[in-house]
Amino acid sequence: RLPVLEVVSLAPLLADAIVRLHEGRSLSPLFRVHEESDPTLPRPL
User: Fold this and answer.
1) What is residue 4's DSSP assignment?
2) C-alpha 1, offset from chain centre
């Protein structure tokens, strides 16, 4: 393993996306959380 590489689990995000799709809810909130946590990401037009 590389010492500068951090392994993170996507399982919680995927589980939330599956539940939201099953319930007919929007996936947009999942992306908003990510955008707010990283202000260096470009904003959508």
Assistant:
1) T
2) 24
**CA–CA distance, 22 with 17 (Å, rounded to integer):** 9
Percent helix, percent strand, percent coil in the chain, to nearest 5:
50, 0, 50
Calpha distance 40→29 (Å, rounded): 18
Instruction: Return the structure tokens found at 4.
Output: 């500068």
Residue length of the chain: 45
Query: Of 32, 3, 18, which Cα lies nearest the Cα of 43?
Result: 32
Q: What is the pLDDT of residues 1-45, one digit of tens each?
A: 678 888 889 899 899 999 999 999 999 888 775 555 666 665 655
